[in-house]
């Protein structure tokens, strides 16, 4: 079905061949999870080109493709692509211009230009990414499983949060727990920050030690079958101050407003405004984070990117994050983030760790 939709896009634009270079897009189309691969789609065939390191893996995973093992010492990728284009009589070629460096493309283009059959070559962006926007049931299931691993891993480390533990120590333990529970890797570099450092939206865990009264911001995710989860929770170590409670409730209200407004067809910019209006009406409007969330799937950040300029609509089977935040330099930051999907019966929240303000 994926290949059929992609071919329809090609033919609509007058092309009869497409080169895919992105590892993520190759995995999406073929289920091949290795590297050093290129996909060539023509009107007649679906080719996956790789070398001896991955050829057996590709034959098992990419069942819908003709897998070709290139002998690297005897044949360049460029000459192999040119050979296949000529063999299939291709005339109009598109290629993923955003996923190959200039030098590599110039070598391929040089070989292709020598073919008398090729009449036109055109770069294209986003062809596969648009297909990835809507998730299938197996994709949603994989993201949900990754979210469940993250939920349990977080619950497992909460008893370890003690005075004196460092950000780095706790982050390592969290990642270890996810691995024990079956995560293939971390979804991204774990963000785990204490106190005033929690005001860094994407800060790196340091040797900063936990002290009473500190905010604890944890942003992390697991991976199942290549699909990623992404969740943020914020806690207080010890008794929360009045201001910590106030800011936490503000962020919680902003997230809830977006969750309640989420429906099929709503534009990303409109969804953003439901949350942003609450933050802008507060005393902390100058410390609100930009944007509201993003799509998530095989990549951590996918379409749509939800913010004031997002004109893309949110549709059924789209998995997105909702993650408003307040970041105050020298004081700290509070972010609450969940993965959600527009399912047939409404909005389903995939990340289910409790969101009440915990005083640990």
UniProtKB/TrEMBL annotation:
One of its GO terms (molecular function) is metalloexopeptidase activity. Pfam families: Creatinase_N (PF01321), Peptidase_M24 (PF00557). The keyword Cell inner membrane does not apply. Residues 142-342 form the Peptidase M24 domain. Signal peptide: none annotated. SUPFAM superfamilies: Creatinase/aminopeptidase (SSF55920), Creatinase/prolidase N-terminal domain (SSF53092). It comes from the Bacteria. Residues 3-132 form the Creatinase N-terminal domain. Keywords: Aminopeptidase, Hydrolase, Protease. The keyword DNA repair does not apply. Gene3D superfamilies: Creatinase/methionine aminopeptidase superfamily, Creatinase/prolidase N-terminal domain. InterPro entries: Creatin/AminoP/Spt16_N, Creatinase/aminopeptidase-like, Creatinase_N, Pept_M24, Pept_M24_MAP, Peptidase_M24B. This is Aminopeptidase P family protein.
